[in-house]
Protein backbone atom coordinates (compact mmCIF):
# COMPACT_ATOMS: atom_id res chain seq x y z
CA UNK A 1 0.00 0.00 0.00
CA UNK A 2 1.32 3.46 -0.86
CA UNK A 3 2.29 6.01 1.77
CA UNK A 4 -0.59 8.25 0.78
CA UNK A 5 -3.24 5.55 1.04
CA UNK A 6 -2.05 4.62 4.51
CA UNK A 7 -3.02 8.10 5.59
CA UNK A 8 -6.69 7.68 4.81
CA UNK A 9 -9.31 5.29 6.13
CA UNK A 10 -11.40 3.19 3.76
CA UNK A 11 -14.57 5.23 4.08
CA UNK A 12 -14.81 8.92 4.94
CA UNK A 13 -17.71 11.32 5.30
CA UNK A 14 -17.75 14.50 3.28
CA UNK A 15 -19.66 16.50 5.86
CA UNK A 16 -16.69 18.74 6.58
CA UNK A 17 -16.55 20.03 3.00
CA UNK A 18 -16.41 23.69 2.23
CA UNK A 19 -19.05 24.57 -0.38
CA UNK A 20 -17.69 23.89 -3.87
CA UNK A 21 -19.00 24.08 -7.42
CA UNK A 22 -18.93 20.32 -8.08
CA UNK A 23 -18.34 16.95 -6.47
CA UNK A 24 -14.94 16.87 -8.19
CA UNK A 25 -14.00 20.03 -6.33
CA UNK A 26 -15.23 18.48 -3.09
CA UNK A 27 -13.20 15.33 -3.66
CA UNK A 28 -10.06 17.36 -4.39
CA UNK A 29 -10.50 19.60 -1.34
CA UNK A 30 -11.32 16.75 1.00
CA UNK A 31 -8.42 14.50 0.01
CA UNK A 32 -6.04 17.45 -0.05
CA UNK A 33 -7.00 18.32 3.53
CA UNK A 34 -6.74 14.72 4.68
CA UNK A 35 -3.29 14.19 3.21
CA UNK A 36 -2.13 17.47 4.78
CA UNK A 37 -3.07 16.11 8.21
CA UNK A 38 -0.03 13.88 7.98
CA UNK A 39 2.91 15.68 9.60
CA UNK A 40 5.40 13.98 7.26
CA UNK A 41 3.97 15.57 4.11
CA UNK A 42 3.99 19.06 2.65
CA UNK A 43 3.02 20.75 -0.61
CA UNK A 44 0.16 18.33 -1.21
CA UNK A 45 -1.71 18.76 -4.49
CA UNK A 46 -4.71 16.63 -5.44
CA UNK A 47 -6.38 16.81 -8.86
CA UNK A 48 -9.27 14.87 -10.41
CA UNK A 49 -8.05 13.78 -13.85
CA UNK A 50 -11.16 11.88 -14.92
CA UNK A 51 -14.69 11.09 -13.77
CA UNK A 52 -16.37 7.79 -14.70
CA UNK A 53 -20.09 7.33 -13.93
CA UNK A 54 -20.95 3.96 -12.36
CA UNK A 55 -23.77 2.34 -14.32
CA UNK A 56 -24.55 -0.07 -11.49
CA UNK A 57 -24.87 2.66 -8.86
CA UNK A 58 -27.05 5.62 -9.72
CA UNK A 59 -25.55 8.88 -8.53
CA UNK A 60 -22.11 7.38 -7.91
CA UNK A 61 -18.96 8.19 -9.88
CA UNK A 62 -15.41 6.92 -9.91
CA UNK A 63 -12.82 9.70 -9.61
CA UNK A 64 -9.34 9.09 -10.97
CA UNK A 65 -7.07 11.13 -8.73
CA UNK A 66 -3.53 12.38 -9.33
CA UNK A 67 -1.92 13.20 -5.98
CA UNK A 68 1.49 14.75 -5.48
CA UNK A 69 3.35 15.64 -2.30
CA UNK A 70 6.85 16.00 -0.90
CA UNK A 71 8.30 14.71 2.35
CA UNK A 72 9.32 17.26 4.98
CA UNK A 73 12.38 15.15 5.78
CA UNK A 74 13.32 14.93 2.10
CA UNK A 75 12.00 18.07 0.38
CA UNK A 76 13.41 17.07 -3.00
CA UNK A 77 11.67 13.69 -2.93
CA UNK A 78 8.29 14.01 -4.61
CA UNK A 79 5.66 11.30 -4.14
CA UNK A 80 3.29 10.87 -7.07
CA UNK A 81 0.31 8.56 -6.93
CA UNK A 82 -2.63 7.91 -9.22
CA UNK A 83 -5.58 6.36 -7.44
CA UNK A 84 -9.33 5.79 -7.72
CA UNK A 85 -11.94 6.98 -5.24
CA UNK A 86 -15.71 6.62 -5.37
CA UNK A 87 -18.26 9.18 -4.24
CA UNK A 88 -21.92 10.13 -4.52
CA UNK A 89 -21.29 13.64 -3.25
CA UNK A 90 -22.01 12.74 0.36
CA UNK A 91 -19.79 9.74 1.05
CA UNK A 92 -16.37 8.80 -0.31
CA UNK A 93 -14.72 5.37 -0.30
CA UNK A 94 -11.54 3.83 -1.67
CA UNK A 95 -13.20 0.75 -3.12
CA UNK A 96 -16.54 -0.78 -4.00
CA UNK A 97 -17.17 -4.47 -4.61
CA UNK A 98 -19.92 -6.06 -6.68
CA UNK A 99 -21.58 -8.52 -4.28
CA UNK A 100 -22.80 -10.72 -7.14
CA UNK A 101 -19.47 -11.15 -8.94
CA UNK A 102 -17.01 -10.28 -6.19
CA UNK A 103 -15.34 -7.93 -8.66
CA UNK A 104 -13.78 -4.70 -7.49
CA UNK A 105 -15.25 -1.75 -9.38
CA UNK A 106 -11.78 -0.20 -9.40
CA UNK A 107 -10.74 -2.76 -12.02
CA UNK A 108 -13.56 -1.66 -14.30
CA UNK A 109 -12.65 2.02 -14.35
CA UNK A 110 -8.86 1.85 -14.48
CA UNK A 111 -7.30 3.98 -17.24
CA UNK A 112 -6.84 2.32 -20.63
CA UNK A 113 -3.37 1.71 -22.05
CA UNK A 114 -2.94 4.55 -24.57
CA UNK A 115 -1.28 4.11 -27.96
CA UNK A 116 1.34 6.68 -26.94
CA UNK A 117 2.63 4.28 -24.27
CA UNK A 118 3.80 1.77 -26.89
CA UNK A 119 7.28 3.15 -27.54
CA UNK A 120 10.08 1.68 -29.62
CA UNK A 121 12.35 1.59 -26.56
CA UNK A 122 9.96 -0.87 -24.91
CA UNK A 123 9.36 -3.15 -27.90
CA UNK A 124 11.30 -6.35 -27.22
CA UNK A 125 9.82 -8.74 -29.79
CA UNK A 126 7.32 -8.90 -32.63
CA UNK A 127 6.53 -6.46 -35.38
CA UNK A 128 5.33 -2.98 -34.53
CA UNK A 129 2.35 -3.52 -36.86
CA UNK A 130 1.39 -6.87 -35.33
CA UNK A 131 -2.32 -7.50 -34.87
CA UNK A 132 -2.14 -7.58 -31.08
CA UNK A 133 -0.15 -5.52 -28.59
CA UNK A 134 0.95 -6.96 -25.26
CA UNK A 135 2.41 -4.80 -22.48
CA UNK A 136 4.20 -6.45 -19.57
CA UNK A 137 5.24 -4.70 -16.35
CA UNK A 138 7.62 -6.88 -14.39
CA UNK A 139 10.33 -7.24 -11.77
CA UNK A 140 12.92 -9.87 -12.77
CA UNK A 141 13.29 -11.03 -9.16
CA UNK A 142 9.56 -11.43 -8.53
CA UNK A 143 8.91 -15.20 -8.16
CA UNK A 144 5.63 -15.01 -10.10
CA UNK A 145 7.34 -13.01 -12.84
CA UNK A 146 10.12 -15.59 -13.11
CA UNK A 147 7.56 -18.32 -13.67
CA UNK A 148 5.47 -16.27 -16.12
CA UNK A 149 7.56 -13.88 -18.24
CA UNK A 150 10.13 -16.25 -19.83
CA UNK A 151 7.45 -18.72 -20.97
CA UNK A 152 5.13 -15.96 -22.20
CA UNK A 153 7.93 -14.34 -24.24
CA UNK A 154 9.03 -17.70 -25.66
CA UNK A 155 5.47 -18.34 -26.84
CA UNK A 156 4.80 -14.92 -28.33
CA UNK A 157 8.17 -14.67 -30.08
CA UNK A 158 7.00 -17.52 -32.32
CA UNK A 159 4.30 -15.25 -33.79
CA UNK A 160 5.88 -11.87 -34.67
CA UNK A 161 2.99 -10.96 -36.98
CA UNK A 162 0.49 -11.68 -34.25
CA UNK A 163 2.14 -10.13 -31.17
CA UNK A 164 4.08 -6.93 -30.58
CA UNK A 165 5.41 -7.29 -27.04
CA UNK A 166 6.34 -4.22 -25.01
CA UNK A 167 8.23 -4.63 -21.75
CA UNK A 168 8.34 -2.10 -18.89
CA UNK A 169 10.75 -2.36 -15.97
CA UNK A 170 8.91 -2.22 -12.65
CA UNK A 171 11.45 -3.15 -9.94
CA UNK A 172 9.95 -3.65 -6.49
CA UNK A 173 12.79 -2.00 -4.62
CA UNK A 174 11.42 -2.41 -1.11
CA UNK A 175 11.20 -6.20 -1.27
CA UNK A 176 13.81 -6.84 -4.01
CA UNK A 177 16.58 -4.22 -3.61
CA UNK A 178 18.77 -6.10 -6.10
CA UNK A 179 16.21 -5.59 -8.85
CA UNK A 180 17.09 -1.90 -9.29
CA UNK A 181 20.75 -2.42 -10.30
CA UNK A 182 19.64 -5.39 -12.39
CA UNK A 183 17.18 -3.43 -14.51
CA UNK A 184 19.68 -0.58 -14.85
CA UNK A 185 22.16 -3.13 -16.18
CA UNK A 186 19.54 -4.48 -18.57
CA UNK A 187 18.88 -1.02 -20.01
CA UNK A 188 22.61 -0.34 -20.28
CA UNK A 189 23.15 -3.64 -22.10
CA UNK A 190 20.34 -2.85 -24.55
CA UNK A 191 21.81 0.58 -25.23
CA UNK A 192 25.07 -1.14 -26.12
CA UNK A 193 23.26 -3.22 -28.73
CA UNK A 194 22.92 -6.51 -26.87
CA UNK A 195 19.98 -8.68 -27.95
CA UNK A 196 17.44 -10.67 -25.96
CA UNK A 197 18.51 -8.95 -22.74
CA UNK A 198 15.13 -9.26 -21.03
CA UNK A 199 14.98 -13.03 -21.51
CA UNK A 200 18.51 -13.38 -20.11
CA UNK A 201 17.65 -11.06 -17.22
CA UNK A 202 15.39 -13.74 -15.73
CA UNK A 203 18.29 -16.22 -15.63
CA UNK A 204 20.46 -14.07 -13.37
CA UNK A 205 20.97 -15.77 -10.02
CA UNK A 206 21.23 -13.30 -7.18
CA UNK A 207 19.68 -12.90 -3.74
CA UNK A 208 16.77 -10.45 -4.16
CA UNK A 209 17.83 -8.72 -0.92
CA UNK A 210 21.41 -8.18 -2.11
CA UNK A 211 22.48 -4.51 -2.08
CA UNK A 212 26.10 -4.76 -3.22
CA UNK A 213 26.03 -3.30 -6.75
CA UNK A 214 29.32 -4.88 -7.76
CA UNK A 215 28.12 -8.33 -6.75
CA UNK A 216 24.81 -7.83 -8.56
CA UNK A 217 26.54 -6.56 -11.66
CA UNK A 218 28.98 -9.47 -11.63
CA UNK A 219 26.06 -11.90 -11.67
CA UNK A 220 24.42 -9.96 -14.53
CA UNK A 221 27.61 -9.80 -16.63
CA UNK A 222 28.25 -13.49 -16.11
CA UNK A 223 24.76 -14.40 -17.30
CA UNK A 224 24.26 -11.91 -20.11
CA UNK A 225 27.84 -11.89 -21.41
CA UNK A 226 28.47 -8.17 -20.90
CA UNK A 227 31.29 -6.23 -19.27
CA UNK A 228 29.36 -3.45 -17.60
CA UNK A 229 30.80 -1.48 -14.71
CA UNK A 230 29.05 0.32 -11.87
CA UNK A 231 29.86 3.60 -13.62
CA UNK A 232 27.91 2.41 -16.69
CA UNK A 233 24.75 2.24 -14.58
CA UNK A 234 24.91 5.94 -13.79
CA UNK A 235 24.30 7.11 -17.36
CA UNK A 236 21.52 9.70 -17.61
CA UNK A 237 19.92 7.78 -20.48
CA UNK A 238 19.30 4.83 -18.16
CA UNK A 239 17.65 7.00 -15.52
CA UNK A 240 15.40 8.55 -18.17
CA UNK A 241 14.31 5.15 -19.48
CA UNK A 242 13.44 3.85 -16.02
CA UNK A 243 11.56 7.06 -15.21
CA UNK A 244 9.69 6.66 -18.50
CA UNK A 245 8.63 3.13 -17.49
CA UNK A 246 7.61 4.25 -13.99
CA UNK A 247 5.58 7.15 -15.36
CA UNK A 248 3.64 4.83 -17.66
CA UNK A 249 3.11 2.35 -14.82
CA UNK A 250 1.71 5.18 -12.71
CA UNK A 251 -0.51 6.42 -15.55
CA UNK A 252 -2.19 3.02 -15.94
CA UNK A 253 -2.12 2.36 -12.18
CA UNK A 254 0.14 -0.67 -12.11
CA UNK A 255 0.45 -1.80 -8.51
CA UNK A 256 2.08 -5.23 -8.69
CA UNK A 257 3.99 -7.64 -10.88
CA UNK A 258 3.53 -9.08 -13.32
CA UNK A 259 0.84 -6.84 -14.75
CA UNK A 260 -0.23 -7.63 -18.31
CA UNK A 261 -2.23 -5.59 -20.82
CA UNK A 262 -3.62 -7.16 -23.98
CA UNK A 263 -4.74 -4.67 -26.61
CA UNK A 264 -5.01 -1.89 -24.06
CA UNK A 265 -6.92 -3.74 -21.35
CA UNK A 266 -5.64 -5.35 -18.16
CA UNK A 267 -5.54 -9.14 -18.37
CA UNK A 268 -5.92 -10.30 -14.78
CA UNK A 269 -5.62 -13.94 -15.89
CA UNK A 270 -2.35 -13.21 -17.74
CA UNK A 271 -3.26 -16.06 -20.07
CA UNK A 272 -5.45 -14.45 -22.73
CA UNK A 273 -2.57 -14.21 -25.17
CA UNK A 274 -2.74 -17.99 -25.53
CA UNK A 275 -6.35 -17.75 -26.71
CA UNK A 276 -5.66 -15.22 -29.45
CA UNK A 277 -6.42 -16.71 -32.86
| CATH fold label of the largest domain | Glutaredoxin
Major sheet size, sense and barrel closure:
5 strands, antiparallel
Broad shape: globular
For the record, the count of structural domains works out to 2
Task: Write down the secondary-structure element order.
Answer: HEHEEEEHEEHEHHHHEE
Oligomer: single chain
C-alpha termini separation = 37 Å
CATH architecture tag of the largest domain: 3-Layer(aba) Sandwich
Describe this protein's structure:
The protein has 277 residues and is α+β, with helices and mostly antiparallel strands. The chain folds into two domains: 3-109, Nuclear Transport Factor 2, Chain: A, CATH 3.10.450; 115-275, Glutaredoxin (3-Layer(aba) Sandwich). It has helices spanning 3-6, 23-36, 105-109, 143-156, 179-191, 197-201, 213-224, 236-251, and strands at 11-13, 41-53, 61-71, 78-87, 91-93, 123-125, 132-138, 163-169, 259-262, 265-266. The strands form two sheets. It has a five-stranded antiparallel beta sheet with strand order 1-5-4-3-2, covered by helices on one side. The longest helix is centred in the C-terminal third of the chain and has 16 residues, at 236-251. The chain is globular, with a radius of gyration of 21 Å.
Topology:
Elements: H1 3-6, E1 11-13, H2 23-36, E2 41-53, E3 61-71, E4 78-87, E5 91-93, H3 105-109, E6 123-125, E7 132-138, H4 143-156, E8 163-169, H5 179-191, H6 197-201, H7 213-224, H8 236-251, E9 259-262, E10 265-266
Parallel strand pairs: 7-8
Antiparallel strand pairs: 1-5, 2-3, 3-4, 4-5, 6-8, 7-9, 9-10
Helix pairs in contact: 5-7, 5-8
